[in-house]
Amino acid sequence: MASRIALLGCILCLWTPASQGADLAPPASYEGRTITAVKFEPAVQPLAAAELNRLHLFETGAPLRLSAVRDAIQRLYSTGAYSDIEVGTEPAPKGVVVVVRTTEQWFVGPVDVKGNLNSPPNRGQLANATQLQLGAPFDDSELQTAAKGIRTMLQRNGLYFASVEPRIHRDDEHQEVELTFTVNSGKRARLTLPTVNGDTKIPAAVLAQAAKYKGWFRWKPATEGNVQSGLRNVRKKYSKQDRLTAAVTLERTEYLAPQNRVKAILQANGGPKVKFQTTGAKVSNGKLHRYVPVFDQGMLYRDLLVAGARNLRDYFQSEGYFDAEVEFRESRPSPDLEEITYTVGLGQRQKLVKVSVVGNQYFSTADLRALMFLHPAGFVRLRHGRYSADFAAHDENAIVALYQANGFSDAKVTTTVATSYLGKRGNVAVTLHVDEGPQYTVSKLDVEGITLAKRQKVVSRLAETQGQPYSASNVALDRDAILEFYQGSGYLNADFTWQKTPGPGPHQVALKYTITEGRPNYIKGIVIYGLSTTRRSLVDSEIQMKTGDPISWTEMGNTQRRLYNLGVFDKADMAVQNPDGDTQEKYVLYHVTEGHLYNLALGFGLEAANIGGSQTSLANPAGTAGVSPRVDFDLSRLNLWGLGHSVNFKSRYSTLDRRASLEYLWPRFQNVDGRNVSVSFLYDNTRDVLTYTATRYVATAQISQRFSKSLTGIFRYQWTDDQVRQSTLKISPELIPLYAQTAHVGMFATNWVQDRRNDPVNATRGYYNSLDFGVADHAFGGTVNFTRLLLRSSEYKTVFVHDVIATNTEFGWIQPFNITPGVSEQNYMPLPERFYGGGDNSNRGFPYYQAGPRDPNTGFPIGGNALLFNQTEFRFPFIGENIDGVIFHDMGNVYSTVSDISFRVHQDNLQDFNYMVHAVGFGIRYRTPLGPLALDLAYSINPPKFFGFNGTYQELLSAGVNPCSGPEGFRCSVQQVSHFQFFFSIGQAF
Fold first, then answer.
1. Closest CA to 262 of 185, 162, 194, 187
2. CB under 8 Å to 174, separation ≥6 — which residues?
3. Is 355 helix (H, G, I), strand (E, B) or coil?
4. The predicted structure's pLDDT at residue 689
5. Distance in angstroms (rounded) separating the CA atoms of residues 231 and 268
6. How far is CA 389 from CA 126, 314, 318, in A?
7. Bridge-based pairing state of the strands 273-279 and 247-256
8. Integer Cα distance of 195 and 252 in angstroms
9. Contact at 8 Å (CB) between 430 and 404?
10. Which own/partner contact pairs does 447-452 have at CB distance under 8 Å and 24+ positions apart?
11. Contact by Cβ (8 Å): 343, 327
């Protein structure tokens, strides 16, 4: 008769039955009998045979002991792969067969929310409301809890009619449970007038109206955001009546089913009015609100009042009152009024004229000044300098921390302040005295516990080595480097400890690192969930891990980043299945959420500047102030064919430019990172240069390759059809037939970009270089032959801590070849293919596109075959934290040919435009999330003069070949580009 050992326990109480031997048969029936075999039921186990053998559950031929049974059950449970375990025996001729009956554990897989959703809440918020974590153990009882979490969130957003239907799909191969919650939101309830309870001080009816739960025409939807917005509105009502200690909370919400309304029950305690006043100095209400945190927190705590006194003191010290002291007192004139009085002692107003650092030898003064808040007085900003006791203490601590990080454990910094510096009353000089002390070095470093073959690779990562400076921060770096290496090698539970002892010599320490490796973990398999439109092959190409590799959080994170970079997923969650289980092989899980297949963007904007001329007459060829409104419309179809390809339509309509483009983009061509192929078509009705209106049709095929983080190369073929409308040409009548001819340009070109800027939107250091070279030839499908070269080099350097010097140089050269006999180089090039310049991105001494050669009769620009521009800017903090100033100098021009480039600054005659135009000016940059909002005011030192025709088109045509041959030509006058120019745009000039 078979004896049976049964240990049945729930997951939360595994150890009690195992340790106590509950429900076991009498030990005498099996104790000591020989184990002839071990059998698992079911035969297919979630753990591989090698993993089961590693656990050493039962040894064949050994006697069966109760302790061995208990130990085996504990080991199996510790793997996390089982939810239930039974151990029994079956008789055998020479002993017993141990039978292990198991129930596998399920784990949380993808959690998806589908159905008819009325946001808010969105799908992601509802999925988070389930509280189910990818890869964590799952019990069927959690399903209803998860559904309840979704219903609760829906009801908090007024969706009381919503239905939630959970569905489970079990992935038997990976022990994963895929959970889908189908939600039908139903009709959303609306808010109604709230009930306000408590000692309100203000009539409850007034507060209820202040919540603004009713919009212009009807009650607002009962979303969680709208409810909380009502609470904020009530608090604002209290704040306007100086009741800064008022407390407003949401007690609960009541659902009024017959009306499908939600009533918020608010608890409000108005508290006394709080009146702030200052003596000793005038402080505006705005500054009080800014510097006293009571107004932000809405609470009257003493700590906040103390912080307000400190902030006001720092403010006055930053304004030059370095001896300023601020104190406060509280009083209660009446039960419903509390007064807070800040007493300010200003003292003499001073100026910080000098900040010095002495005693430093290991670090340069410039390195230390870069850490400091103290700053001497400037010409525009910080006119009295920046000084306060707190700032001085901050600088001392920052310098000490730098020294300690480099081995100077005993470093000290003290500050002395000299008043009446150089005998001038009110001038202050601050000196920071650095006492470096001795530098401690590492006499010996022992690293214990490394059994990996790559020991030298681990040691080579260490910041602390023999003879190097010692610091606790370097030890912390070593700890992070070692653990990162181990975790990247599959040792997820590796541990690091360290010990410091005195070294043999003075100012020496001996270090000992002890590493507890633990057991490595390997990838059992990689499971991807959430693919619908996207092909698995696209995702596989981004996964560089494979089964059997060590589990590396670093590589898992890199894979997650690459999945996001595909641009087709809104979300990519990653996890390790059964993270706490004692198994060496684990599944790596990714749950991706595909993004929308269509993106629509609509934008509005405008440009204000001296744009130049009129589109319908010959007036104002030198430019005139104008505003160009702009509308942008973009539509994209993403993840085409499920391969991450996209089709993008972009269009713009403005008074200067009308264009539409269609692009097909194939990213990661041939599965090479950074290699993209695109084919595009462009329609462009160019009005930028008001000498003419041209319609351009452009077809481009290109391949780009990112060779490194900073270097990108582009290779393209471009075919262009340039059509200039004859009726819009504002040039000499005899040249109209030549310039109005349709031109075809077939060009092979390459573009190289090197970008090492720290911030492409607003760089403060680094550089940007680009080279664009192309060859157009009849053999490539064109009607004109020329080479085109355009070089740009920008550099950014930070000086004086917060100031930036930025320079930008551009050089362009168009060289025609195989020119039609009798046609000059200048006249050979089609108007739309020439260089044009002027404006904030080239030379602010000209209106947009007004630089370079002009028609001798009308004065309108006609572009050139060469350009040379240089821009230099000094960028500095100007007003507050968000407004910067710019002083700039621009020089350069567009030239007829490359041989005409000249640095002379004077115009030889009214037909000479091949000289260098200089401009200086001042600009303001206001920082916004989209980039700096820029306003530039420029003065052109030597703008060009020219003949301009004052008549109509018909008068020009009837005037003859050369109507402006001299100053007194027919209806001609000498005109000049204005000395003053202005530009308003978004972004830095370069």
1. 194
2. 109, 525, 527, 577, 587
3. strand
4. 66
5. 10
6. 50, 8, 11
7. unpaired
8. 10
9. no
10. 447/513, 447/515, 448/512, 448/513, 448/514, 448/515, 449/514, 449/515, 449/516, 449/517, 450/515, 450/517, 451/517, 452/489, 452/517
11. yes
Specify the pLDDT at position 968. Answer: 47
Q: How many CB atoms lie within 10 A of CB 80?
A: 20
Cβ-in-10-Å burial (0-12, 13-18, 19+) of 965 comes to middle
* Identity of residue 253: T
Take residue 17 and report the two structure tokens written for it: 């039955």
Tokens describing residue 270: 């108005």
3-state secondary structure of 840: coil
Measure the CA–CA gap between 582 and 584, rounded to whole angstroms. Answer: 7
Q: Are 704 and 683 in contact (CB under 8 A)?
A: no
Q: Encoding tokens for residue 321?
A: 């009152």
Cβ atoms 153, 129 nearer than 8 A: yes
DSSP state of 900: G
What's the rounded Cα separation, in Å, for the pair 910 and 796?
A: 38
Residues in the chain: 990
User: Along the chain (990 residues), what's the average pLDDT of each consecutive run of 10 residues?
Assistant: 34 32 52 90 90 86 90 93 92 91 96 94 95 95 96 96 95 95 96 96 95 93 96 92 91 95 96 92 90 83 92 88 92 92 93 94 92 84 83 94 95 93 89 96 94 86 92 94 91 93 94 93 95 94 92 93 92 94 93 93 75 61 74 94 95 86 94 93 80 90 95 97 84 74 94 95 93 97 96 93 91 94 86 92 92 88 95 90 92 96 94 96 90 92 89 67 55 87 87
Reported for 672-679, long-range contacts at CB under 8 A and 24+ positions apart, including other chains, are 672/705, 673/562, 673/706, 674/704, 674/705, 674/706, 674/707, 674/712, 675/703, 675/704, 675/705, 675/706, 676/703, 676/704, 677/701, 677/702, 677/703, 677/704, 678/702, 678/703, 678/704
3-state secondary structure of 183: strand
Helix, strand, coil abundance in the chain, percent, nearest 5: 20, 40, 40
Cis peptide before 579 (omega within 30 of 0): no
Please provide the distance, in angstroms rounded to a whole number, between the alpha carbons at the two ends of the chain: 91
Helix (H) or strand (E) holding 239: helix 224-240
C-alpha dihedral sign at 131, 132, 136, 140: positive
Q: What are the CA-CA distances from residue 894 to residues 327, 590, 753, 852, 865 (Å)?
A: 64, 56, 23, 4, 8
Residues forming a β-bridge with 512: 446, 499
Type of residue at 942: N
Q: Which two tokens stand for residue 67?
A: 């302790």
Q: Which residue type does 550 have? A: P
Amino acid at 507: H
Phi, psi of 205 (to 5 degrees): -65, -35
What contacts 550, CB < 8 A, 6 or more positions away? 488, 489, 490, 491, 520, 521, 522, 523
CA gap 84, 89 in Å, rounded: 17
Q: Do the bridges between strand 883-895 and strand 441-448 make them parallel or antiparallel, or are there none, so unpaired?
A: unpaired
Amino acid residing at 894: V
Residue 498's beta-bridge partner residues? 513
Sorted by where each starts, the structural domains of the chain and their CATH numbers stand as 11-104 (3.10.20.310), 106-184 (3.10.20.310), 190-269 (3.10.20.310), 273-345 (3.10.20.310), 351-435 (3.10.20.310), 441-516 (3.10.20.310), 522-594 (3.10.20.310), 601-986 (2.40.160.50)
Largest pairwise CA distance in the chain: 130
The rounded distance, in Å, linking the Cα atoms of 126 and 25 is 49
Q: Are strands 917-926 and 933-940 parallel, antiparallel or unpaired?
A: antiparallel
Query: For residue 975, which phi and psi values (nearest 5 degrees)?
Result: -120, 170
Residue with tokens 């008068």: 955
Token look-up 């670090």 returns 363
Backbone dihedral angles phi then psi of residue 31, each to the nearest 5 degrees: -55, 125
Q: What is the DSSP letter of 6?
A: -
Closest Cα partner for 839 from 610, 628, 625?
610
> Tokens for 768?
């940007």
